[in-house]
């Protein structure tokens, strides 16, 4: 009886490990497809439904996306972190860090907060649109 139980447990573990490996391989393939679309330099155009101007930022915020990381600027401070894609139209900016230079960028905190809460994206006509649970938050043009 103990041998049968041991064989059953060993078989379950082996089957479970194989399924997990197959699932991870599928996710990685999907992530590469999504990431390729995003691997661009993006310049902020619109923040919370309003066109950004020189009055809002010292210079326009930029994001450079790579397969698993991003870097850029808030218009004053450098930013960087990790990207996580969970499928078509879904992306998160994780471990976001920023320099802490004093700036005259009135919308910098809002920009950073929206990046941290971002969960979705779409790309149309060479523009990147980011969104969170409440809807569209930012748009970028290729830069």
UniProtKB/TrEMBL annotation:
<dbReference type="Pfam" id="PF03724">
    <property type="entry name" value="META"/>
</dbReference>
<keyword id="KW-0346">Stress response</keyword>
<feature type="domain" description="DUF306">
    <location>
        <begin position="37"/>
        <end position="140"/>
    </location>
</feature>
<dbReference type="InterPro" id="IPR053147">
    <property type="entry name" value="Hsp_HslJ-like"/>
</dbReference>
<protein>
    <submittedName>
        <fullName>Heat shock protein HslJ</fullName>
    </submittedName>
</protein>
<feature type="signal peptide">
    <location>
        <begin position="1"/>
        <end position="20"/>
    </location>
</feature>
<dbReference type="InterPro" id="IPR038670">
    <property type="entry name" value="HslJ-like_sf"/>
</dbReference>
<dbReference type="InterPro" id="IPR005184">
    <property type="entry name" value="DUF306_Meta_HslJ"/>
</dbReference>
<keyword id="KW-0732">Signal</keyword>
